């Protein structure tokens, strides 16, 4: 709209300049050299105005492109933030799995310590007993490890170390 107003103004200016030029052409006292200089100056003026209008149109297009690029850049930043949030969530899940596996490892090691204590070459009456005593000790160790694991998972959920 601004360009059309500017074009209309330049056309009206051109019409008035042309009328002045025609009235001056009728004047016989002017020399041919001054007329040729004036013809060139009017042509240059029109070319400069056209160039200004083209540059203004190009600047408007460049401004639109710049705004689109800015919005795309903001969109990319938002997507990066979203991806980082998703990665943080996955990292937290991996840490919870790591905590669970380390807890299982610690409890299994506690069971191994109990078994290791009973495998020493110490002479006590429990070792000279029946196989039923061996199975009772093994079952007690296994049940103790499972209960210890369940208590540690409950404690981890209570302290919000593990997800609910």
TrEMBL record:
InterPro entries: MRS2-like. This is Magnesium transporter MRS2-F-like. The chain crosses the membrane at residues 99-123, 135-155. Coiled coil: none annotated. Keywords: Membrane, Transmembrane, Transmembrane helix. The keyword Endoplasmic reticulum does not apply. The keyword Disulfide bond does not apply. One of its GO terms (molecular function) is magnesium ion transmembrane transporter activity. Belongs to the CorA metal ion transporter (MIT) (TC 1.A.35.5) family. Pfam families: MRS2-like (PF22099). PANTHER family: MAGNESIUM TRANSPORTER MRS2-F, RNA SPLICING PROTEIN MRS2, MITOCHONDRIAL. Gene3D superfamilies: Magnesium transport protein CorA, transmembrane region.
């Amino acid at each position: 709209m601004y360009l059309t107003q500017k074009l209309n103004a330049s056309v009206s200016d051109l019409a008035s300049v042309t009328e002045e030029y025609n009235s001056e052409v009728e004047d016989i006292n002017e020399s041919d050299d001054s007329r040729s200089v004036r013809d060139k100056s009017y042509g240059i003026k029109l070319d400069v105005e056209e160039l200004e209008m083209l540059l203004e149109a190009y600047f408007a297009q460049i401004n639109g492109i710049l705004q689109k690029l800015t919005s795309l850049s903001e969109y990319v930043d938002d997507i990066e933030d979203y991806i980082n949030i998703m990665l943080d969530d996955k990292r937290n899940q991996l840490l919870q799995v790591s905590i669970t596996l380390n807890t299982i490892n610690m409890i299994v090691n506690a069971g191994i310590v109990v078994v290791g204590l009973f495998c020493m070459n110490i002479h006590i009456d429990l070792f000279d007993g029946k196989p039923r005593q061996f199975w009772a000790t093994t079952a007690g160790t296994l049940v103790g490890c499972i209960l210890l694991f369940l208590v540690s998972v409950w404690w981890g959920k209570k302290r919000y170390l593990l997800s609910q």
